[in-house]
Structure prediction request, 1625 residues.
Amino acid sequence: MTPCRVNVKRWQAEMIHSLFVINHLGDIFLEKHWKSVISRSVCDYFFEAREKAVDPENVPPVLQTPHHYLISIYRGKLFFLSVIQTEVPPLFVIEFLHRVADTFQDYFGECSESVISDNVVIVYELLEEMLDNGFPLATESNVLKEMIRPPNILRSVVNTLTGGSNVGETLPQGQLSNIPWRRAGVKYTNNEAYFDVTEEIDAIVDKSGTTVSAEIQGVIEACVKLSGMPDLTMSFMNPRLLDDVSFHPCVRFRRWESERVLSFIPPDGNFTLMTYHISSQNLVAIPVYVKQSISFFEAGSCGRLDITIGPKQTMGKTVEDLKVTVHMPKAVLNANLTASQGNYTYDFTTKLLVWDIGKLNPQKLPNLRGSLSMQTGVPNPEENPSLNIDLKIQQLAISGLKVSRLDMYGETYKPFKGVKYVTKAGKFQVRT
Amino acid sequence: MTAMQKLLQLPVNAVNMVKTVQSQVQGQEEDKSPVLTPDSGQQAWYSALQPDELRHLRSGGTGGGGGGDQEERAPLEEGGGGGGGGFQTQPLRHDDLKEMLDSNKDSLKLEAMKRIVAMIARGKNASDLFPAVVKNVACKNIEVKKLVYVYLVRYAEEQQDLALLSISTFQRGLKDPNQLIRASALRVLSSIRVTIIVPIMMLAIKEAASDMSPYVRKTAAHAIPKLYSLDPEQKDQLIEVIEKLLADKTTLVAGSVVMAFEEVCPERIDLIHKNYRKLCNLLIDVEEWGQVVIINMLTRYARTQFLNPNINESLLEEGGSGDKTFYGSDEDEDEDEEEKEKKAEAAAMAKRKPYVMDPDHRLLLRNTKPLLQSRNAAVVMAVAQLYFHLAPKAEVGVIAKALVRLLRSHSEVQYVVLQNVATMSIKRRGMFEPYLKSFYIRSTDPTQIKVLKLEVLTNLANETNISTILREFQTYIKSMDKDFVAATIQAIGRCATNISEVRDTCLNGLVQLLSNRDELVVAESVVVIKKLLQMQPEKHSDIIKHMAKLTDNIQVPMARASILWLIGEYCEHVPKIAPDVLRKMAKSFTNEEDIVKLQIINLAAKLYLTNSKQTKLLTQYVLNLAKYDQNYDIRDRARFIRQLIVPTEKSGALSKYAKKLFLALKPAPVLESPFKDRDHFQLGSLSHLLNAKAGGYQELPDWPEAAPDPSVRNVEVFTLLERVTTLTSVPEWTKCSSREKRKEKKVEKPFYTDSEGESGPTESADSESDSASGSESSSGSEESGSGSESEESKEASESEEEEEEEEEEQKKKKKKDLKKPVQESESEQSSEEEERKHQRKSKPRKSESESESDEDEESESESSQSESEDSESEAEVKKKKKTAESKPPPKPLKKESKKEKKEMSLLDLDDFEPAPSPQVTPVNTFLSNSLVTDLEGLSLSDSVLSPATIAPSSALKSYELLHRITGEGLSVEYCFSRQPFSPDANMVAVQMQFTNSASSDTKNLHIEDVKLQSGMRVKEFPEIELLPAGETATAVMGIDFCDSTQAANFQLCTHTRKFFVSIQPPVGELMRPVFLTENEFKKEQGQLMGMNEITEKLTLDVKCRNEHAIVQRVTTAANLSRVPCGSDKECSPPVPPPDYPVHRFAGRTVTSGSLVLVTVATKEEGAAQLTVNCEKMVIGTMLVKDILQALTQ
Prediction:
């Protein structure tokens, strides 16, 4: 046999070989190898790219080095850098790394360096369970929580006193079931199911106020605390609105295809039931309009800024948490403005002007005006900065989507059910 | 990070490479900071902490105190030692840990393990604790145990001997009654990378693969690639396990085993056949990661098994070029021509039979589609690429929506998705056009996303939307992100070249940008304008003038060079300005960048040629400056140009042509997308993203020209294998509609039933009704689906046979021939129909389900469609059967003559291609293949050769094609006769010997339904009309294997039955001997070096150390002729014959005639070296393997 393998080059067989977690200073503070150890110095290629990219967001997610490929994600000021050696769909790795970060967030409430360093053993146990030989094994948070208990203050106190452990005593039965996302034997005294329908408006509005593009991204987040094995069915008043949808694995595709209802056995606790997309072909209501003029003068090295915001299509609801963010050109040294409502800050190192307005009062429109002082001797910026708008409208799904009913089968008790709607601005940009 | 590190980058990498090659036992060293590698002369215990400490020093430069407080945040580590002097007390600390591990308190052990794991997590070395840790492997506390496992897996490789101590614990675990403990024991055991335990692992995997618990089986599947990477020698055994696990019906296992398949044996696509439908049906319930792997694998599978659904569409596209991509039209013409030819060919094929999708192909598309709704971006991408590569053009559109949705995800996901969208949008622009606005760019997008979106927008631009896109571009040009602006300008340039309507608008816009304040913008514009102007220079002399003025201001070298090139190229358009520009440039020559200098020389030369009066001195001056330049390129260029343009008596003939050389019309550059043609990589893959083949990438195969046999996917294979063997005679009811049903009936019977005695109409009726319900209940949906398929196909073939017939010329004769039998058999048909009705009644649910249930319905309706494609051959088969049955045997003569005539006419047609068709019979290649190998030993090799065939040499090895039992009395053997096949020299002659050992005669032996890889051809043997019982007949057929060892699959038909058989040639039979002298041999060998040469060392078998044995064995293994030896004194008489002779053999491959040269150089004590030189590397590699085997056994 041996001599026959003449030209056949053998590749290490695994998907994800190693994982490094790197903080924003470039320190590798966690490493995990699923196969043989790969030296840290492989990260040097990454550091080089990181340096070149200036912005951490601009580091290419996929890098090629002479012997390895580096696939990284940037989450919460941390880089999760995986080392792979062979062909693997890059999205597979990226999606997995995000899932790892999500799990950390789920376990520790946030995904930051300090939290990971504090819980390094749990993190390590999690990574061990999530990936076997580089192939994802248990990524459902319910299954993981059965095996490795998330830390809480009480338990950590008890653990230190008694030498108890984070590792669950029971074996993870969930992994064996057909519905790995749900634990068996869930019990609650108050059975409740809450659904948050959140819609985000992504829009680009041009100088003259016309909408260049607008679409809605919706998501239904659920918090389900129901005993036993409930089988839920959620139906909508107007399901045809939904252009494109994606579901949690628990949702039965076929029912959706044929009846346009969501039928599912929910995971226990918080999860994202579905996300949907309403594309630019449909008419998307834009809740606010912006009147703005930003100009820079050649002489006198100053500029003027004047922004007014008014309600447009708010469906009779109040616009809250209104905020305008402007990324000013480099030449703008300072801003001397007055706001008729709310207050503004200008950070001259990052060149970020933030105007926090709060509630939008339709009678008295908020306005921000004043002058900008510019660096002298530098030619005026040609470009005008665009405005990023943040807002929130309670009790409204801007697309008009409405949940009509939620039915439960399989269990006898009467659960408490609630649906909440919120509309937010997503990537809402006004060009100037 | 720091400049210092950068400086050291290269040596560091070099060090690493060396390190990885070295054993990894020196783990400590590896962890060391690369910058400080040189001073490693410290004590071993010290270095464990060293890297981290030193890294602080390093990061101190950029990160300030950041590193410091990280260290403080590690209380676990600091635990024993106290603060500042921590690392000096380290040995103590480790003792401390050891003590804790040795204690009998679980809490202390746990604490110790936690600290150790924390050390590992930080990349510190904890290997010296191995003995202390490994003792705890059997600890009762679950968490301690888990942490010990973590440690063990990490360090086992470095401490192999000690690691073995733990193995027994896991072996015990493998026997545990709890499935989860069994699984976890297997998981850890297989993760320990110690070669000694390979046999134990192999055993454990094999056992686990047949475990009751699917979870344990899943773990077994995970363990397979681990073992494979540890010891690839186990491949064959592992493939067996994979094969077994592939047949598993649980969703839990499916994803993992396919992953193992992809890692270990992705080339064994044949293992998928019978699991294909099951995988398709399970897919939706498999966990998401498994879905990705399965979908990717099925994409490749489908590419090898189905026909291109767009074959007709691509032709239409060719006709109406309106819908074609831009870039296509600008392509080099000859390539187009070639393609057209190909397409015309394909068109001819398509005309002959309209494309109908294989039901299995449809099944895949339909079952993957809902996964576009997955929350997992990788799954969505996998489905999208599947649709892109496999779906009919009209259906690909569905993926656009899902991909656009992914654009809202994390920026890394966006990045990958946009790359793929960019590639797709070139091929299928229409798909994304409705989503144009989703690709508009926000100022907050990261630059890499912006550039990709820009790419997509450019690809989507056409006459109708260009104005909107250009308006968008105008906004982008004002962006603060200069890299992005530069990309936008490039994009405008591309739009302008592609859409002639807006060329002038774009050009004007770009010219306006020339007055932009930002130099980079101007420079980029200049470069783009230069390219645009090349398309129509005469119209734009003012722009050239304008640009000439810019030379005073623009400093960017590339832009300056572009302007100078433009002026030089079009100096006739600006006759006044050009010399002046040269004057200025001559002045600043010494301060210019190199590319600018080169263009100055160029400009000077061109001006000298057109306007020597004004510029002669300037040119001389420039050339003189260049002559003393520091850059040798420039000096060379100057010398070269001087010789060319300045005529001297020494200058050669070329100077006459100087003008032609310099002022030739240059073709305008084509601005094309960097994503063009990237789709030859499977989309969504790493290779696609990098646009380079990544290690382990599996090529996406091209569509086959003819679909391979689809019946291989029928699932009944195994049962059939057993049952068919029991049939020893040919019962009357062979003809009944579905065979698997018959065999269903047979299950109840003991082996070797005397079917002859029992057979007859009663039984057939029996089985018919029985099986209808039997197959329904016993087997899953797939099975019943396929059952109905074969049933309906009969129906369809009957109804359509007549029209189909008329299409084919050569069939006409046959039709006449067969008309009578068709009529005769009408009564039969009606009875058949009755039977069918009966069946329908017995399963009414099934007919209902045609409108509702998804799995069954599709495959059924599809299959009835697909009939139109295949019915032609189908009909043929059918009719042959009928003739055979209805015609009484006493009058074979008349028929024979006619048959022969028909056969002749078939052979006369040069381009006759056997119509491929999906098989109805459930017998498949797998069956015959395995039988061939299984029963090789049993074969009856008392070959009585008919005088008609060429007598083969005694060395010929004969192979079993059809065993007596399988063949119901007919056995067929074949051998490669090694004689040239006279009708076609490119074919390998295969001599077949038919033996009829049944009690009844066999009639009408012939070949049908040849399934071949593209390019392969078959010349069938003439039909054998009659093979009386107990007789033997021989026939020769020719197969062109296209120099590959792909099997030729076909059906061997008798008047009653069809047998699925395949012939796979050993590589040695793919060549014919040629005579070469030693000199010729050496000369040829010299030309086939490098990649074409494969050398292997071997030890000769004891029995084969003499010359004769070697020659005999080599020539048996491969059809080669011996090259007369060097000792023949032909070429080198003075040299005495070497002590150890060298044997040389030569041949050419049959199809392509590539030389195959084999050298066996013997050395002392049976050592030898085998060298094969062959242009075809695959052939070479395989040949080495075969000869090696022949010589060593």
User: Anything to note?
Assistant: Chain A is about 15% helix and 40% strand. Confidence is low (pLDDT under 50) at residues 1-13 of chain A. The first strand of chain A starts at residue 18 and ends at 22. Chain A has three domains: 13-162, 192-199+213-273+402-421, 288-394.
